[in-house]
Amino acid sequence: MGLGGLFLVIEARAQLETGESIPLPHPPEHHPNKKTIETVWPVVCFILLGSTFIHGCSVAGISVASHFQRNKDERAPLLAQEDEGLDGMVHEGGGGESEPSVSGDEDPDPPR
Prior knowledge:
112 residues, mainly alpha
């Protein structure tokens, strides 16, 4: 849904108003489809917002439910309970430098 729904509602409004792809800045005062033109946008926006809210909450709900379904020893720690951060990660090679070379720097070993 999302952007596709918004595009289609704008297209539908334009087709109802003018029969073309470009909607008028304001709905016409006297038009046989006036009620439909004024109703289509709020209905689709309500459906989009409701869908986004429900799907967003369902992901959080499933995540919390799966957390509490596991045995207490197998659960992942909840957010903001990490004491060590990324210290436990193993870094191989690289010599600990985190800055990449800047473009334009001279390469010490140019390809031949």
